[in-house]
Every structure is written in C-alpha cells, then in structure tokens.
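Case study B.
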Amino acid sequence: TQLLEQSPQFLSIQEGENLTVYCNSSSVFSSLQWYRQEPGEGPVLLVTVVTGGEVKKLKRLTFQFGDARKDSSLHITAAQPGDTGLYLCAAFMIYNQGGKLIFGQGTELSVKP
Amino acid sequence: SAVISQKPSRDICQRGTSLTIQCQVDSQVTMMFWYRQQPGQSLTLIATANQGSEATYESGFVIDKFPISRPNLTFSTLTVSNMSPEDSSIYLCSVVTGAGETQYFGPGTRLLVL
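Model:
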C-alpha cells in the first residue's frame, strides 16, 4: 500500500499550459515536501509546507497543503520546457527514535515547446 | 543545507562482483540514508546508516546484500554485493541536517550490471 498517492504519474503538455499534481494520503503529516529531479541528478527540494491550509508560491509554482494536513498539490502556471522533470512529494515519518522520508510514486512531466 | 558527493558517478559491472559506493558530506549530519531509484520512478529507501552501529534496513533489503558503513558523521559507504542485472539502478545518498526534516540528496550513482 502506497502511503502517499501521487497523481498523475505521467503528464505531457504543451508550453504555456497549466497543470496540477496531487499528493494524497489517509495519514496526517507534520509537514510535506515537494522535490524536483532532473535526469542525471538527485532530487532537489522545492518547498516544505507545514501549516494546514498553507499556500506557498515559487515563481510560477504554487504549493498548497490541505487543511487536514493529509494532502497537497502543486500547480504550475504557463509551463515551460525547463519545468520538465520528475516531481516527487514526500513526508517525514517519525519512528524508532528516528525517522525516514517516504515518497509518492512521482510525476514525470514533459513540457513540449 | 548540505553538499553531498558520491563516487563513482556511474559504473558498469559484471554479475557476481561487488561495488562500493561512497558518500561524502561537507558538514556533520544527524542522519544518512541510502535509496535506490529506477529511472523515471520514485525512490525506495534501502537503509538508514547509523554512526557507530549497524545500519537499519527496510523490508526487502538485507545486510549481506547491501552492507553499509558509517565511520563518522560526514561519510558513508554502500556496497552492492554479488550483483545481478536486477541490481541495475540509481543509488542515492541522502542526509538530514540538524533537527530538521529536510533531506538533501547526492547526485546518485548509476549502476549497470551485465
């Protein structure tokens, strides 16, 4: 069972279009993170959302954390070819006096010029 | 933040051999992790590298296959033992700094087993 359900898993759009990626769970998280990964590189943190209902903007990217802190969304306005990459949502789970980051399945985004 | 380097960046290996991947961080970190990732897919946690004690492995991963060392707070190694083509993947080192939940990732090691 996937703790973080991410959708869609693949998205191919034209430059200038808008898109939304969803990350859903039945669990409540203290925070949720979004990463972007380009080919040949490791994931890079885009944003961390902490407060239920929080909205954060990063240029053309808008991140939202659900009121109940169980889900999040990433919206890209006027996508550009440079936005192409793998987008991953992740949440930190505390266990055994430590913790680990769990990931959604990822969304492979392709923006065509 | 943390700057993470991995060696080697990529390798092609013969089945039955072993490869040791190194992870070096530019500062002391509280937690270090090793992940595996198939191209275009999400990350699967292999284990948490514990400083001064045995690594904590996730379900499906065992120490005999993926021995891990962490001699200090800035360095760790992952060995992929007795490799088979199914081990072909990207292996990523990741760290958590301080008391936060933010993780930083190395560039990955791309392994192809023939």
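Chain A touches chain B at residues 6, 30-31, 33, 35, 40-45, 48, 86, 88, 90, 92, 96, 98-106, 108 (CB under 8 Å). The remaining cases will be described in the next quarterly update.
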